[in-house]
Model the fold of this input.
Amino acid sequence: MKEVLVTGSSGYIGSHLLKKVVGGSLYRVSGIDKENPDKVHPDKFYYGDIRNDKYLKYKYPFDCVVHLAAEMRVGESVKDPILYYETNVLGTLNVLRNIKTKHFIFASTGAAEGLASPYGISKKSAEEIVIQYCLENGIQYTIFRFYNVIGSDGIPIKNPDGLFFNLLKSKDTGVFTIFGNDYDTEDGTCIRDYVHVNEICESILLSLSKPANGIENLGHGEGNSVLNMFNIFKKVNDLDVSLRYGPRRDGDIPVSVLKNKSAYIKNEYKLQDLLKVIS
Done:
């Protein structure tokens, strides 16, 4: 049985990943997070903040570290860039230096390509650190650039800036706000490459036994506007939600769609599947 450590194990992606592996016969999963687990618990849980290496002292090595812990709100990163550099850059280096492993899986983002925000810059910097550290120390690595992750398997969404969080919130408020309708796109709203959280988790599971030793893009290479996603969400969930527009958010770019799709991701989810609410 392989020993796996998941940082950020109580988060949105971390919780979905644990749901797929905990209790199985292949992996014994430890988790570390600065928040306690909610619906899904790892086999072992350690409370801690990756910015402080005192929380990263383990007596034994892991077969693999899945590093998901990060700050991830684009707008917040513009207002508080130091928090993002401390967590996403220094925190990643802390994990690499303090935890022994044979394979390091790093959760990056499509924003690491455009570098339009401190969030994207911090993730790009962390990618470079992961590559250099692993090459110098003989560690296999896999870097996944997640594009816009949405959907749920009954696990709460954590990012209040994210599309799916706000779509779900609109069920209760009756109103959904799109920030910016004057971008140079077909309908004026941002275009993104959307991928289901379970597709992300399945890609991570595949990489546990098949390191990429490179950067892999997890998305579908297909762009959809925020307005289009809102309209589909209303239809598939049979909701009466009104729409309003707000000002552009700092750090948002008009279009973010991947160029080279990874073989680690499978085309299993249609847009309707991405946006269907599962309680």
Summary: Residues 118-137 form the longest helix (20 residues). The CA atoms of residues 182 and 188 lie 5 Å apart. Residues 2-275 form a domain with the Rossmann fold fold (CATH 3.40.50.720).
